[in-house]
Specification:
The protein has 295 residues and is mainly β. It has two helices and 24 strands.
């Protein structure tokens, strides 16, 4: 099984400012600056552009490229995902010789190992993570360190847990003899329910409003409702598309594209309904993107 591995409106006060005194003008400026600007959005991803796999950050327009992590020559950092408040990053690292789930500050400082396992994702309240270990899925309380198995004991080859925005459901992929499928399960565990199990479906991620899942097939990106209806092909062009996620406003999808399964991979954005893709990065292999409005 394959491993995983924006729009906003500013306050317009110009007309009112013409009529206001100097004191009122200052208040108007303060109100306008309270709204987040386009520069408050960032994309994090894994890249080998420095020679080894590290975590990088870039603006959605492809500018202001920054390397966030550094580790040993035989160690790698992949699978980054923003915390719900945008202040931290969860990622997988092989530091110390064994794959583990790590967290760090937004600027890459203060990296801390959480536990064995990979493909971790935060709960919407930031208090728990869901992750993979030994091809089973688990949930861990970040304050107490308590863990519980999420997927049933007889479910093999599970991967890619993704919390719904309301925290009530976790989507994930599972590989059976017949192929991959996407399933839903409650955070407390129980019997999973099927969403879709054709075309090698895996890597599910929720839209910000919780009404759709994006996922990948053997070669392309699709979206589907959680009940398995309204399945839509989003990318239909040449090459291979992988690891899609939603923009903060749910209007775009970000994904990586390669000429073949071997890459090299570049990041692209595309309207969530489909359309013309826009390239964000080039010049290396860039994978596992996540897109967030940060503080």
């Amino acid at each position: 099984m394959r491993l995983r591995t924006i729009a906003w409106t500013k306050l317009h006060v110009a007309a009112a400012l013409v009529l206001l005194s100097g004191a009122a003008l200052a208040i108007g400026v303060t109100l306008a600056e309270d709204a987040p600007g386009p520069d408050a959005e960032r994309i994090i991803f894994s890249s080998d552009r420095s020679g080894e796999w590290r975590i990088w950050m870039v603006k959605p327009d492809g500018s202001d490229l920054q390397q966030l992590t550094e580790c040993g020559p035989d160690e790698g950092d992949v699978d980054p995902t923003f915390s719900p408040d945008g202040k931290e990053i969860l990622f997988t690292s092989t530091r110390g010789g064994k794959a583990g789930t790590w967290r760090m500050s937004l600027d890459g400082s203060d990296p801390q190992r959480i536990c064995d396992g990979d493909q971790a994702e935060w709960s919407p309240d930031g208090k728990q993570i869901a992750f993979r270990r030994d091809e089973a899925l688990f949930v861990r309380d970040l304050e107490t360190g308590t863990e519980r198995r999420l997927t049933p004991d007889d479910w093999p080859h599970c991967s890619g847990p993704a919390w719904s925005p309301d925290g009530k459901t976790i989507a994930f992929a599972c590989r059976w003899d017949a192929g991959n499928g996407i399933f839903l399960i409650e955070p407390q565990g129980g019997q999973p329910t099927k969403v879709y199990d054709k075309q090698g479906a895996c890597e599910p991620h929720w839209s910000p409003d919780g009404t759709r899942l994006v996922y990948e097939t053997e070669t392309h990106i699709c979206t589907i409702r959680p009940d398995g209806t309204d399945n839509r092909l989003i990318t239909y062009f040449g090459g291979v598309q992988r690891y899609a996620r939603w923009s903060p406003d749910g209007k775009q999808l970000i994904f990586c594209q390669g000429a073949s399964e071997r890459g090299p991979w570049e990041l692209y954005a595309i309207p969530a309904q489909g359309g013309t893709p826009r390239r964000i990065t080039e010049g290396a292999s860039d994978m596992y993107p996540d897109w967030k409005r940060i503080p």
